[in-house]
């Protein structure tokens, strides 16, 4: 057998084994929380028009902001190979300082406090 056939056979067998095992391993007796239409903690019997906390959105936006920070800093190791690595280091440091200042501002304003 050539290499391509061997790789396809291994991939197919491994996929089938994982599919079969995934049907046997999960717990098949769900509790009342899993049978509830809302697993996230909201009361399904209350009004659907209750105001939603804006702090949740603030935390979500902060998470996205710091998640994008990683995406901006990922090219940094390859940027060291450029003609001017000091410029790359400058921009990476500027991004980190800006985000750190934003985090300090949110912290001092109480934006990260979940309970009032």
Automatic annotation (TrEMBL):
GO terms for cellular component: mitochondrial membrane; NADH dehydrogenase complex. Its EC number is 7.1.1.2. The chain crosses the membrane at residues 6-25, 56-76, 88-107. It catalyses: a ubiquinone + NADH + 5 H(+)(in) = a ubiquinol + NAD(+) + 4 H(+)(out). GO terms for molecular function: NADH dehydrogenase (ubiquinone) activity. Belongs to the complex I subunit 3 family. This is NADH-ubiquinone oxidoreductase chain 3. It comes from Elops saurus (Ladyfish). The lineage of its organism: Eukaryota, Metazoa, Chordata, Craniata, Vertebrata.
